[in-house]
C-alpha cells in the first residue's frame, strides 16, 4: 500500500529561512526521492559483496547494483527510471536503516520512514525515501558551484563512531514535536536543536536525521580509497558551506544534504525510554547514533545539475526548479522500484530475532 510519504518536504521553508539571515530559499534545490529498495547492498564501501554487512534504504535510479563500477556503468545512461522527482536525476542515495529493539524480548523491527510536507502544508504520496538538497554557499559573494562529473562518488560520516569525540559536523538528529510533524522543524540543520546522537526521549513527531556532505573537491579524483579524501568540508562553516574552500580542495561543488524522517511514534511507550535510555539502533549495530552516515553516487544526465545550480536565484530555488529541470509525478516516482539483489526479510512490519546479517550491537 502506498503511504503518504515524503517528497518535496520543506526542512528549510521560506518562513524559517527568513528568520536566519545566513540562509536563503534561492540557495538550494530541494526534492524528494521515493524508496527504490531496502536491502543489504553497498557498492561504495563493499562493492561486489552480496549481501553486504548491513541494511540500507536506497533511492534514485534503477541501475543500482552491487558493484556500480564506473568503468562499465554510467547510471545516467543505464537507468530506465528514477524514484526521485526530477527525471534527469539517476543518481543513487543511500542511508542505514533504523531499528527498534524491544526492551521486552530483544527482537527488532525496522522503523519506517515518513513524510515531511510541501510548502502548502500537505503531504505527497510517496513510499519511503528521503529528501535531497543540492546547495550553494549561503554566505559570501561567490556562489558559483561546479557540478559533479560522471563517476563521482563520496561518503559522509563514520559508522565506527560511538562517542561524540570526532563526530562529523553535518551528521545530526532532531527530536520533533507533534507540531513539527509536517514541517520537519524550522531553522538550519545541525544547529542547537539537533544532537549528533539519537534522542534519549520519545519524540511526538518522530525523528529527523540529517547527513550533510562536504562542499569542496580536489578537482582531480572522482573517488578515493576511503571515499572521503578527495572532498573536504569548508573550513569556515563546515556544516552549511560558505564560499571558501581549502587550498587542497579548491573546487566548490554542490553541497549534498539528506534528511530522513523516521516515524518512531509507534515506539513512544515511556517504558521503553526509562532513565534516559533509548531503544533504537542503526542497522550497522550502532545504538548511539554517532555513527550515522550516508553514501552518494552521481548520476545526473548531461548538464542537468549544472543547469539547475546556475539557475538558482533566477528560475530555480527550493522546491521549484521545474522551469529548468524535468519533473515527474509522485505516482511515477513511487513506481520506480527494483527487487532485492539478495532476498531477505529486513524487518519491515515483522519482528526479527537479530539485525539483518546478524550484525552485532557495539557500544565502542
Topology:
Blueprint: H1 14-18, E1 28-33, E2 35-39, E3 56-60, H2 75-78, E4 92-96, E5 98-101, E6 108-110, E7 130-135, E8 153-157, E9 171-175, E10 207-212, E11 216-217, E12 231-232, E13 251-252, E14 255-262, E15 280-282, E16 293-297, H3 304-310, H4 330-335
Antiparallel strand pairs: 1-7, 2-3, 3-4, 4-16, 5-6, 5-15, 7-14, 8-16, 9-10, 10-14, 11-12, 11-13
Structure in words:
It is a single chain. The protein contains 4 helices and 16 strands. The chain is globular, with a radius of gyration of 19 Å. Mean pLDDT is 89; it is low at 1-23. It has 364 residues and is mainly β. Strand 5 (98-101) and strand 6 (108-110) form a beta hairpin. 52% of the residues are buried. The strands form 4 sheets. It has a 5-stranded antiparallel sheet with strand order 1-7-14-10-9, with no helix packed on it. Strands 2-3-4-16-8 form a 5-stranded antiparallel sheet, with no helix packed on it. Strands 6-5-15 form a 3-stranded antiparallel sheet, with no helix packed on it. It has helices spanning 14-18, 75-78, 304-310, 330-335, and strands at 28-33, 35-39, 56-60, 92-96, 98-101, 108-110, 130-135, 153-157, 171-175, 207-212, 216-217, 231-232, 251-252, 255-262, 280-282, 293-297. The chain has one domain. Keywords: Signal. Residues 1-18 form the signal peptide. Residues 42-300 form the DUF1996 domain. InterPro entries: DUF1996 (IPR018535). It comes from Westerdykella ornata.
Amino acid at each position: 500500500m502506498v503511504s503518504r510519504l515524503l517528497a518535496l518536504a520543506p526542512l528549510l521553508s521560506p518562513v524559517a529561512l527568513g528568520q536566519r539571515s545566513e540562509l536563503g530559499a534561492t540557495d538550494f534545490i530541494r526534492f524528494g526521492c521515493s524508496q527504490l529498495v531496502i536491502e543489504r547492498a553497498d557498492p561504495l564501501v563493499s562493492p561486489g559483496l552480496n549481501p553486504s554487512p548491513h541494511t540500507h534504504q536506497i533511492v534514485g535510479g534503477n541501475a543500482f547494483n552491487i558493484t556500480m563500477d564506473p568503468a562499465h556503468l554510467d547510471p545516467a545512461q543505464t537507468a530506465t527510471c528514477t524514484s526521485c522527482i526530477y527525471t534527469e536525476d539517476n543518481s543513487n542515495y543511500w542511508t542505514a536503516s533504523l531499528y527498534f529493539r524491544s526492551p521486552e524480548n530483544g527482537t527488532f523491527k525496522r522503523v519506517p520512514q515518513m513524510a515531511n510536507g510541501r510548502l502548502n502544508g500537505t503531504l505527497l504520496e510517496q513510499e519511503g525515501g528521503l529528501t535531497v538538497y543540492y546547495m550553494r554557499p549561503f554566505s559570501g559573494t561567490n556562489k558559483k558551484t561546479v557540478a559533479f562529473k560522471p563517476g563521482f562518488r563520496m561518503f559522509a560520516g563514520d559508522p565506527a563512531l560511538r562517542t561524540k569525540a570526532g563526530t562529523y559536523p553535518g551528521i545530526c538528529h532532531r527530536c520533533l514535536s507533534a507540531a513539527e510533524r509536517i514541517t520537519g522543524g524550522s531553522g538550519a540543520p545541525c544547529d542547537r536543536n539537533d544532537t549528533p546522537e539519537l534522542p534519549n526521549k520519545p519524540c511526538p513527531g518522530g525523528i529527523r536525521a540529517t547527513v550533510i556532505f562536504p562542499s569542496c573537491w580536489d578537482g582531480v579524483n572522482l573517488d578515493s580509497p576511503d571515499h572521503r579524501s578527495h572532498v573536504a568540508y569548508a573550513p569556515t562553516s563546515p556544516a552549511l558551506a560558505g564560499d571558501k574552500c581549502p587550498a587542497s580542495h579548491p573546487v566548490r561543488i554542490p553541497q549534498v544534504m539528506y534528511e530522513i524522517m523516521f516515524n518512531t511514534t509507534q515506539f513512544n511507550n515511556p517504558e521503553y525510554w526509562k532513565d534516559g535510555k533509548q531503544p533504537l539502533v542503526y542497522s550497522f549495530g550502532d545504538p548511539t547514533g554517532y555513527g550515522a552516515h550516508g553514501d552518494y553516487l552521481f548520476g545526473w544526465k548531461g548538464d542537468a545539475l549544472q543547469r539547475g545550480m546556475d539557475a538558482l536565484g533566477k528560475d530555480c530555488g527550493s522546491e521549484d526548479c521545474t522551469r529548468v529541470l524535468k519533473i515527474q509525478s509522485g505516482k511515477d516516482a513511487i513506481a520506480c522500484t527494483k527487487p532485492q539483489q539478495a532476498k531477505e526479510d529486513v524487518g519491515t512490519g515483522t519482528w526479527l530475532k537479530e539485525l539483518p546479517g546478524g550484525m552485532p550491537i557495539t557500544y565502542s
